[in-house]
Structure formats: C-alpha cells, structure tokens
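Friendly challenge for the regulars: who can give me the structure tokens for this chain first? No prize, just bragging rights.
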Amino acid sequence: KRAIQKGRLANEMSQKELARRLNLRPTIIRDYELGKAIPSGKILSRMGRLLNIRLTGKNIGKPFKIDNKT
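First reply, four minutes later:
Bragging rights claimed.
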C-alpha cells in the first residue's frame, strides 16, 4: 500500500489523476493506499507500468530497470 502512494507521489500524480488513468474511482485509489481494499493482479500490473515501479514480487516499490541495449 505504501508503494502505490510513494510511486504516485514520485510521479507528481494525485489520487484523482491516477484513478482517471486507470479508469477507476478516486475512492478506490484511496482505499488501496489505506489498505482498506486489495487491488487485483491486473490492476497492480497496470498501476505498476503507469507509475514505473514494481508492485508485485520481491522488489516491491523498486523502479523497473530500463534496458537501453541497442
């Protein structure tokens, strides 16, 4: 739950903006951040990609590594 909030704030995004981008209600984002609701794996995946952080597995809260190999 803290990883979602940290990721959102690091991206200078409000709960309302994150909800809009995920097609959810802002109250749902609030509930996720407060631990009152648990997002599905699908929502966690979409949220993680949007915020560029891992929200599942061992490295929760860590940024995705950007591979610049060409």
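The radius of gyration is 12 Å. The CA atoms of residues 16 and 59 lie 26 Å apart. Your move, everyone else.
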